[in-house]
């Protein structure tokens, strides 16, 4: 076994051990509740929320409540929840984000805030840029930020 092989095996074992420790809750006894809550939002809540959002016919409702056209809301929803993008690590869906899920649920209810509307504007510009210029996510995201369409959850 070469040194490189040893390092690769060591890293794989380390990942498996740490994953197993966290799965059994051993790690949480050292971290307190905040880390568990944070991880739960990313690993459980966000993926489940994205599944619910994908299964919901909410385009007309959000359009009516926000004043955005149904065409724009449909494009935004497709961009965030359904479309695969050229990301830094390959072509795939976006990772589920709990803050985006929260914003989307507020938009469905009509109980949205200014940042939720900024999210819609950000994602619409990003989707259009990516589509028009046939570019990767990083390029379209950076262009969106440069255009002043920022979003802060």
Q: What's the structural blueprint in terms of helices and strands?
A:
Layout (H helix, E strand, L loop, with lengths): L2 H21 L4 H4 L1 H22 L4 H8 L3 H13 L2 E3 L2 E3 L5 H12 L4 H20 L3 H10 L7
Antiparallel strand pairs: 1-2
Summarize the structure.
The protein is mainly alpha-helical and 153 residues long.
Distance between the termini: 48 Å
The coarse silhouette is globular
Describe the largest sheet.
Answer: 2 strands, antiparallel
* Lateral strand order in the biggest sheet: 1-2
Counted by DSSP, the helix tally is 8
Unreliable stretches: none
Class by alpha and beta content: mainly alpha
Indicate the percent of residues in helices: over 70%
Output the radius of gyration: 19 Å
Percent of residues in beta strands?
A: under 5%
Q: Can you write the helix and strand succession as a string?
A: HHHHHEEHHH
Mean pLDDT: 90
Give the total of beta strands: 2
Give the total of domains: 1
Transmembrane segments: 6-21
Keywords: Membrane, Transmembrane, Transmembrane helix
Q: What descriptors fit this protein?
A:
153 residues, mainly alpha, two-stranded antiparallel sheet, 8 helices, 2 strands, 4% strand, globular
Walk me through this protein's architecture.
The chain has 153 residues and is mainly alpha-helical. The protein has eight helices and two strands. The protein has one domain. The chain has helices at residues 3-23, 28-31, 33-54, 59-66, 70-82, 98-109, 114-133, 137-146, and strands spanning 85-87, 90-92. The chain has a two-stranded antiparallel ribbon with strand order 1-2. Helix 3 (33-54) crosses helix 6 (98-109), helix 5 (70-82) packs across helix 7 and helix 7 crosses helix 8.
């Amino acid at each position: 076994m070469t040194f490189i092989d040893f390092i690769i095996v060591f890293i794989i074992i380390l990942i498996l051990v740490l994953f197993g420790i966290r799965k059994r809750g051993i790690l949480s006894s050292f971290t307190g509740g905040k880390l568990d809550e944070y991880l739960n939002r990313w690993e459980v809540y966000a993926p489940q929320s994205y599944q619910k959002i994908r299964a919901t016919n909410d385009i007309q409702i959000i359009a009516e409540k926000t004043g955005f056209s149904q065409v724009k809301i449909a494009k935004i929803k497709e961009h965030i929840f359904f479309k695969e993008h050229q990301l830094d690590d390959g072509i795939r869906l976006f990772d589920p984000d709990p803050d985006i899920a929260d914003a989307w649920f507020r938009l469905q209810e009509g109980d949205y805030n200014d940042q939720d509307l900024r999210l819609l504007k950000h994602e619409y510009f990003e989707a259009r840029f990516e589509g028009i210029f046939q570019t990767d996510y990083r390029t379209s995201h950076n262009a969106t930020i440069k255009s002043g369409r920022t979003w802060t959850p």
